[in-house]
Amino acid sequence: MKRKHNMSLNLIIGIISIIVGCIIYILWRETNLLMFSWFERTGFFSLFLNFRKSFKIFLNLFPKWFFFSLPLALWYFGGILIFSHIWDKYYFEKFCWIFIFSIITFGSEFGQLFNLVPGTYDSNDIYLMLFFIPIIMLINIKQIIKESLNEKN
Description:
This protein is about 80% helix and about 0% strand. By secondary structure, it is mostly helical. It has one domain. Helix 1 packs antiparallel against helix 5, helix 5 packs antiparallel against helix 6 and helix 5 runs parallel beside helix 7. The chain is globular, with a radius of gyration of 18 Å.
């Protein structure tokens, strides 16, 4: 029973991480990004513009990497936690999906470096994603240790 609670917590952390990354994009990134054309088509563009005006004061409080690199790192972190939750005890499948997700995420960033993928390469994106990998590993190791202790008891 405790195992399911931990996995649900990881799922929640993963979803929150992705949502926070999205909020950063919505509030502080340029409005010429593709997602803003989606907002325009759905009629939400003016609503988001009003939110953006209210939060504009924070632009000078945070470093640029907060707005430009942190969202991708949060999406990566959240995605890994969600894959870990979905594949739970299917360790090989979990590894495969996380590996594929990592290749796509890091690959798209390096693809930007060589103009193979649209966007702007930023080494801070790589550094922040790498920063989250040990945290993900600690979360997974902690779960494995808890599982083995629960099985022994």
